[in-house]
Every structure is written in C-alpha cells, then in structure tokens.
Design a protein that fits this description.
By secondary structure, the chain is mainly α. The radius of gyration is 21 Å and the shape is rod-shaped. 0% of the residues are buried. The chain has two helices and no strands.
C-alpha cells in the first residue's frame, strides 16, 4: 500500500471506495475465528461460565 501511494497518489474518494468495504469485509471475516479463539481460551483456562450444574 505504501509503495503504491508513493508511486501514484490516490484521491480521498478512492480510499473510501477501497478501504471502507475492505474494513467491513475483513472485520466480519475475522469475527467468528476470533470469537472462537476467545471462547476456547476461556474454556481451556476454566474461566467463569463453563461449570456444570451440580444437582
């Protein structure tokens, strides 16, 4: 990205057209894997919320 910016300057509108959808798509793409990692780490370290109910 930096090399492209140095070779040909982009207009602010071009940044909006490319970076806004990229930010939305990438954040949605990484949402499930990151959530799975966090929940897995909580389960592995026996943090609150995963205890079995004693009847």
């Amino acid at each position: 990205m930096m090399h492209f910016e140095m070779s040909a300057p982009l207009s602010p509108m071009m940044y909006m057209v490319t970076m806004l959808p990229a930010a939305i798509i990438l954040s949605l793409a990484f949402l499930r894997p990151v959530k799975g990692f966090v929940v897995g780490m909580q389960w592995a370290t026996k943090m609150h919320g995963f205890a079995t109910a004693n009847a």
